[in-house]
Task: inverse folding
């Protein structure tokens, strides 16, 4: 009897189990479990939302060669230091220059950046042929605002060998950062060196041998000789003044006075033809010379009366005057 009862109970339990399995499980799902899952889903979405990144302000970074890239104005986006080429004031590209000649190269450039150029800025040599130019020289003693222009000049010397020579220059700010034209380009001097004048022998006026005379003769003497200025600069106009006097007993007729800017020149620089100079008379002679082509620490210049030796004089050795001058750099 007890065994039959247990069997019935077991059968009822299996039937109930099958009944519950056939039912729709979601209908019996616990609402609290649904709320918990939804909360977990929202939390996961919030957790996966990316955070915004910070914006980087451009700054100057050191380049590989030790120079610096241009510093930018963060407000306008324009570079702080930038030069713009305006003109070749002197020595355009390809200019012919005699070997060994001193010349002055001048560029006109514009401040195309946003920073003011001042006395802390320099003009510096960067590449090519330096041509005796300085490694660095001060850009200006004043200030050049953005949009302003300035002339940059260098005193250079042409190489001795003929050919085409190129030298590059840039600007440098007070922090040692170099800059030039757009895209960091340098500005250049380009010359074509050609042969200079051929050296010649020193010109010495020929003095004819003394001859016997039976009568009085004129005697021409250079009693005064000067240059104004006495120490001219390269390319500066020079006024030459010579004073010639006849100290003889008779008139001196039809003779020439000549001046050599440099004693070793093959021909005179200025000449004066004198028709007549009576005994005891003198004559002031002047001319203007365009200027010496290059500096010289010690240069001899001469003036000679009766330069063509047309006259027989009492004393043939007192008709020359010589002075030594210095030609300064411009």
Result:
């Amino acid at each position: 009897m007890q065994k039959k009862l247990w069997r019935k109970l077991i059968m009822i339990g299996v039937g109930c189990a099958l009944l519950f399995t056939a039912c729709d499980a979601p209908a019996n799902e616990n609402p609290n479990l649904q709320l918990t899952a939804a909360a977990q889903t929202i939390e996961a979405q919030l957790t996966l939302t990316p955070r915004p990144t910070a914006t980087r302000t451009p700054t100057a970074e050191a380049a590989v060669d030790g120079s610096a890239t241009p510093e930018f104005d963060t407000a306008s986006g324009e570079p702080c230091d930038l030069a713009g080429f305006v003109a070749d004031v002197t020595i355009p590209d390809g200019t012919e220059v005699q070997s060994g000649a001193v010349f002055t190269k001048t560029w006109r450039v514009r401040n195309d950046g946003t920073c003011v150029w001042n006395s802390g800025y320099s003009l510096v040599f960067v590449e090519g042929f330096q041509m005796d130019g300085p490694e660095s020289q001060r850009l200006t003693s004043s200030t050049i605002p953005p949009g302003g222009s300035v002339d940059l000049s260098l005193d250079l010397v042409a190489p001795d060998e003929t050919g085409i020579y190129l030298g590059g220059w840039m600007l440098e700010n007070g922090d040692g950062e170099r800059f030039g034209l757009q895209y960091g380009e340098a500005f250049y001097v380009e010359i074509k060196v050609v042969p200079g004048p051929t050296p010649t022998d020193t010109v010495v006026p020929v003095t004819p041998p003394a001859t016997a005379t039976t009568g009085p003769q004129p005697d021409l003497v250079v009693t005064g000789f000067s240059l104004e200025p006495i120490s001219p600069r390269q390319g500066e106009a020079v006024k030459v003044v010579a004073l010639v006097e006849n100290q003889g007993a008779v008139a001196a007729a039809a003779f020439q006075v000549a001046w050599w800017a440099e004693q070793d020149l093959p021909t005179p620089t200025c000449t004066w033809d004198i028709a007549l100079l009576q005994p005891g008379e003198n004559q002031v002679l002047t001319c203007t010379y365009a200027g010496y082509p290059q500096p010289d620490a010690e240069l001899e210049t001469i003036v000679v009366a009766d330069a063509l030796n047309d006259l027989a004089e009492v004393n043939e050795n007192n008709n020359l005057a010589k002075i030594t001058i210095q030609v300064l750099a411009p």
About this structure: Helices lie at 2-22, 31-48. Residues 2-22 form the longest helix (21 residues). Confidence is low (pLDDT under 50) at residues 1-6, 18-69.
